[in-house]
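Reposting from the mailing list since nobody answered there.

I have sequence plus structure tokens for a pair of proteins and want to know whether others read the tokens the same way I do. The first protein:
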Amino acid sequence: MEITNSIPVWLDKDHPNFLRWERARNISLERGKFVKQVLEQNFEPINLSVLDLGSGEGGTSKILSEKNFVISLDINFIRLKRQKENFNLGKLLQADAIQLPFSDSTFDLIIIQDVIEHIENLNQLHSELLRVLKEDGLIYLSTPNRFSIINFLSDPHWGNPFISILSRNIIKNIFIRFFRKKERSRNDIPQLLSLKTIRKLFSKDFEIKLMTDFSVDELFKENKGIVWSDFHLKLINIIKSTKADRIVKRISNNHFGFVNKYLTPTFYFIMKKNSQ
């Protein structure tokens, strides 16, 4: 994110989203543990060369670096500095996701955790991912669902209704212009992606697997690395108190149909690069 008046927006205590972002920072390690759990449902994440792309607070890099070689990459220097201070991570790199400073076929695994919606040039990102991934390399991708009714009621980034379906230009020129003026200089304004968009972007070159079933099970086991917004936490409590969690578990699935198109709030994917 851009820095405004020497203070990053996400560290500004007067910002309406400060508590949401602070909670996300505080559970950074828990989020990393959840990523590791998702990976373990598909393979053993050991002795891999890993790129944590848009690594944020660094919790995922910290967890995966215990048994792998991990490079933590972020475009924001302040975030990388915080990673060094909080986790003493050694392999830190400031760079742009669409201009990766690595040779071809460098990584076994790339982590893209709640980052892709902040990137404008998705085709260039796709090209770079293909280039730096090894043959049969893997991607962990998580991102909020543009057409989820849950996100429509409360956007995961802004906390407001309706924003989730808006384009980046409308968010910037209308919502930010009139309601979040402090963020006018941001260059990472999120635009949520639909399941259709993600499949169109990746299906030609990757085998795509959704992990909705596992994430729903973990959600109702009170996994602390999945949810941190007040709206979503309250919604989960309501679902559990009314015993509706049984219904949610019953209808959740890993298919590319109605449930994941319009209900699932966050996509979790494991994607394997096709052999050339």
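The second protein, same order (residues first, tokens after):
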Amino acid sequence: MEIGIDTFASANFKDENGKLISNSQALEELLERIEYADKIGIDQIGIGEHHRKEFLDSAAHIILSAAAARTKNIRLTSAVTVLSVSDPVRVFQNFATLDLISNGRAEIVAGRGSFTESYPLFGYNMHDYNALYAEKLDLLLNIRDNEVVNWAGKFRPDLVEQAVYPRPIQDPLPIWVGVGGTPESFVRAGVLGLPLMVAIIGGETHRFAPLVELYRNAGEKAGHDPEKLKVGVHSLGYVAETREQAIKEFFPGYAEMFTKIGRERGWPPVTMSHFESQIGPTGALVVGNVEEVAEKVLRHSEALGGLSRFSFQLDVAGLS
């Protein structure tokens, strides 16, 4: 199993005096952490995509390109690319260029995103949420698999005998499908034979087992090699020397962030009792000491029938 780290490039980091650091410093420190992760053997780093004040990841491929210049081995992925509001031609070109810069380490995790601010920002209608993603994923795969593209759709001009460059080192360029909890999304990924990245940020991990089974069954029914139907998990996590230290350092920022997001979505405020249930044996959060975290990752893998990759999102709490 590969172990990775995902980040949304938080703009909420504070200095020793409790003052927010500048955005430029936050990005420099993020690149330093990525450089360190590469040196200690972390397999993958993922940068999200948001268009909000709290995060600095609106141009993830730029951050990943800067990281490519400072690293040698770590895989460089999106986490996720909000494909529904993006031009698949530009997405492919950006990540093909990243693949060339990094000598074959780029990957795309294509999803719809869990925030909605990008839809009005780029002039799209939320009523087209599902149709946009399906069409743009189809185009992205067409571009990946064909140097010269012929394609027609609803949401962008047709492509007729149009060549798309540059081409990446990796052939094919890895494209994962990022999913939440919609059964149709799991089935789509299986039918297409694409690896699956499941975002599990709350509840109990084992509740996703039937959905992962849907994915694997759909893939095998479509004729894909079961060995290629890889499953990864993106989860919130934090490791400290002791469980008590992990809770003390992680909970305040986690509660602040998710209470703020909850106000936008009608969720109740985060409480310590809720948090403790989430870091329990079957809860989604992977927070604790080294032994506890390792054991929980293996438990999650077993619950979902085996994982190829587990990616921790470590900066949700705005840790210093």
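Reply #1 (J.P.):
I read it the same way you do. The mean pLDDT is 95.
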